[in-house]
Amino acid sequence: MIDLPVNSEMLTPILIVILIVVIVVRIFRILREYERGVIFFLGRFQKVKGPGMIIVVPVIQQMVRVDLRTVVMDVPSQDVISRDNVSVRVNAVIYFRVIDSQKAIINVENYLQATSQLAQTTLRSVLGQHDLDEMLANRDMLNADIQSILDARTEGWGIKVSNVEIKHVDLNEAMIRAIAKQAEAERVRRAKVIHASGEMEASEKLVEAANSLAREPNAIMLRYLQTLTEIAGEKSSTILFPIPMSLMEQLFKPQDPPKK
After folding, report:
1. One MF term in GO for this entry (predicted)?
2. CB neighbourhood size of 54 (10 A)
3. Is 48 exposed, middle or buried (0-12, 13-18, 19+ CB in 10 A)?
4. Structurally, how many domains does the chain consist of?
5. Is 55 part of a structural domain of the chain?
6. Greatest mean pLDDT among 32-36, 50-54, 195-199
7. Which tens digit of pLDDT belongs to each residue from 19-39?
8. Could you tell me if 75 and 116 lie in one domain?
9. CA distances in angstroms from 117 to 46, 72, 74, 77, listed in the order given
10. CA R_g for the chain
């Protein structure tokens, strides 16, 4: 082996340059427009910096990055028992963002995990207070209730919950068939009510027509003649036409002899 001579005078400037580059890299930090840096000075909170280029003194200062963009979090499916004792599986999605970086880092260990767990428990507790029909028909009201509760509880963490959306309410096959039977029965009930209402209105009109014809005896004759005209247009070979007894009495009623 050939031993190369090492000149300590040459290594010293190189080490100094490398040390300066490392210090400069660690001192200057760049934060994007949607990022903030929470600065701690010897373990104590100092200030929130950013965006842009900031200076962080190594060893005595530490920085924690915080993303201020809206986070879209999918809440896993939760088993919920409604107020009318129906078991369903519900999942949702929540939209939130950090509005206070200091609180998000200092007041809670992991604000993402904490918000996720709080959303799951709140989803179960709120939906358990409502019937199945309300879950299926009043989703906007339930979304607003869950959003207001989450927003109030995460305020101390520096988080703003902007929206909550219930995505799916999954039912078992037996419950789906029961709901279909209920809907069918409701349709049948409405049809019967509409039919009965029509019969009632028709009977009222018939009574009015009968009263009108009774006030004018000749009107019934005109009505019979009109009906005969309509039947004749059908080109039928046989026409059966009922004649009321009152009309027959008028036809066969003996005429009074002429006065002399």
Report:
1. peptidase activity
2. 16
3. middle
4. 3
5. yes
6. 32-36
7. 877 777 788 888 999 999 999
8. yes
9. 30, 14, 11, 12
10. 44
